[in-house]
Every structure is written in C-alpha cells, then in structure tokens.
Amino acid sequence: MKKETIVALILGIGFGLIVAILMIVRTRPQTSQNSNTITNSVSNAPTKPVNQSLVTNLEITSPKDKTITKSNSVTISGKATKNSMIIIQSAAKDIIIKNKEINFKVDMPLTLGENVIQINVYPDDKNIPYQNKQLQVYYLEE
Q: Which of the listed CATH numbers 2.60.40.10, 3.30.70.3340, 3.90.550.10, 3.40.1170.60 matches domain 59-139?
C-alpha cells in the first residue's frame, strides 16, 4: 500500500474514536441530570356500584359448540344483559342487534365447512364489563 492510504486510514480511525468519545462524554451527564421521578397523580375515583341482579352472564342456549348441521343457516339464541348491544361475527355475515329483553334470537347464515362465530355483548352500563363467546358450527352438505 502507499503511504497516503495508510496515513488516511490512521487519521480516519483516530478522528472516529475522538468523535465517539466526545459524544459519550457529552451525553452521559445529561441523562443523569435530567432523570426525574414520575409521580402518580391519578386518584382513585369512587365508582358506582353495579347491581348484580341486573347483570346477566352471556349464555348461548342454541346451537351448542362444535355442532354439525346440514342446513345453510342456524338460529343463535341465548341470554344477555338487558338493553345491551350484541355483535355476532362470522365469515358469512356480521349482525348487530340491540337487546331489548334478556333473551335474544338471531338467524345466522353459514358457509360450507367450519364456521367460527364470535358473539360479543356490550352493556349500556359502562361499569359492567363486556362479554364474549366463540362458537364453532360445521355446515356439511350430503
């Protein structure tokens, strides 16, 4: 190699090390001086008690999970909290209903093969948590 190439490599490495050391020295004091502790200013607000007699757990009465059917639709019936929004999702169709009574009944179309049906219930009362269930229904033709 030529002399100029060796000198350029040595100077490049030297200046690179100097710049790296300067950056480390400058950033280290800033991080230790700027570290402040974070205080929790969130207060525990009182929540309204939930009347458990008004809460109905999501219960699917028909069809049962992993049911095999020869029909291209199924009627989903069950119980949920009164005045809640029920969202039923599958690959074939998404249905959203407002539950006026505790019992509900919905006709759901099926696709050929396995149908995974997700049922979510969102009560009007924000203090009641949402509930969800998943059904597998198999539609097989003969």
A: 2.60.40.10
DSSP annotation of 25 reads H
For Cα atoms 40, 41, 45, give the angle at the middle one, nearest 5 degrees: 115
Take residue 116 and report the two structure tokens written for it: 């995974």
Cβ atoms of 121 and 58 within 8 Å: the answer is yes
Q: What is the DSSP letter of 23?
A: H
Backbone angles phi, psi at 112, to 5 degrees: -65, 130
What does the alpha-carbon distance between residue 62 and residue 94 come to, in Å, rounded to a whole number?
Answer: 18
Query: What does the pLDDT average to over 83-98?
Result: 89
Identify which of 87, 89, 83 has the alpha carbon closest to the alpha carbon of residue 126: 83
Q: How far apart are alpha carbons 40 and 7 in whole angstroms?
A: 57
Amino acid at 39: T
This prediction's pTM: 0.59
